[in-house]
Amino acid sequence: MTKVVNVIDITTQEGNNALHNAARYGHKLLVQEIIKECPSLTFKMNHKGETQMHVTTRFGRRDIIEFFIKEMKDYKGIHIGKMRDKFGNTPSHGIARNANFKVMAVLAANDTESLCRINDRGISKVVNVIDITTQEGNNALHNAARYGHKLLVQEIIKECPSLTFKMNHKGETQMHVTTRFGRRDIIEFFIKEMKDYKGIHIGKMRDKFGNTPSHGIARNANFKVMAVLAANDTESLCRINDRGIS
């Protein structure tokens, strides 16, 4: 154990210590060992003012992020998800810049408050990530819905409800994606919270092939999801696409 204790005081030219580097490269066991010996190291910053949590979120180490959040939250009254670097960024700004939706979902599930924090340039993480799209044209809400991250879906919609109607390159809204992947709880949320928002019915919106969200349910024979739609939006079940398929 002396080897771990000795290495704690060593830093790189950038000011990164052993815990910064173990977190960056995803060595969870080493992270746990170092923290067990010296938990206060979690709050040590490098020359940019970055904690280990900043580095971990920037490099998308989900298992280590979960460990930091669950084990170190509010340690001695210091919340690692709220700590800022020299530019005013909290760890979740790094998630947003890298469009790491799965990592953002981890933070949303454990620490929704941190998602709304703003840096010194007035940029919020959630607002910042809204403008990022994948090669397929999917935005943050498409991906959060696809992977079933309900808390993140709610947080994004709270910040920007109109994003619900943004389409990807296939003309698919978030509702198309959600029904295609059978995310029942998110479908119910979309239907109940967003129905007829500003006169636009998300269950009636069509992609480039004329498909409404319920066509995706039918193609996948997802009867439980269809039951959700039937209970809340029977009209959408009868719509026909451009190939004449209901």
How would you sum up this structure, described in words?
- With 246 residues, the chain is mainly alpha-helical.
- The chain has a domain at 1-103: Alpha Horseshoe (Serine Threonine Protein Phosphatase 5, Tetratricopeptide repeat).
- It is built from 16 helices and no strands.
- The protein has helices spanning 2-7, 18-24, 28-37, 52-58, 62-72, 91-97, 101-110, 112-115, 125-130, 140-146, 150-159, 174-180, 184-194, 213-219, 223-232, 234-237.
- The longest helix is centred in the first third of the chain and has 11 residues, at 62-72.
- It is elongated and about 65 Å long.
- Mean pLDDT is 73; it is low at 118-123 and 239-246.
Beta-strand percent range: under 5%
- Which superfamily, in CATH terms, is the homologous superfamily of the domain at 1-103? Ankyrin repeat-containing domain
- General form: elongated
First-to-last CA distance: 67 Å
Average pLDDT taken over every residue: 73
Low-confidence stretches: 118-123, 239-246
CATH class annotation of the domain at 1-103: Mainly Alpha
State the helicity in percent bands. Answer: 40-55%
How many helices does DSSP assign? 16
According to DSSP, the number of beta strands is 0
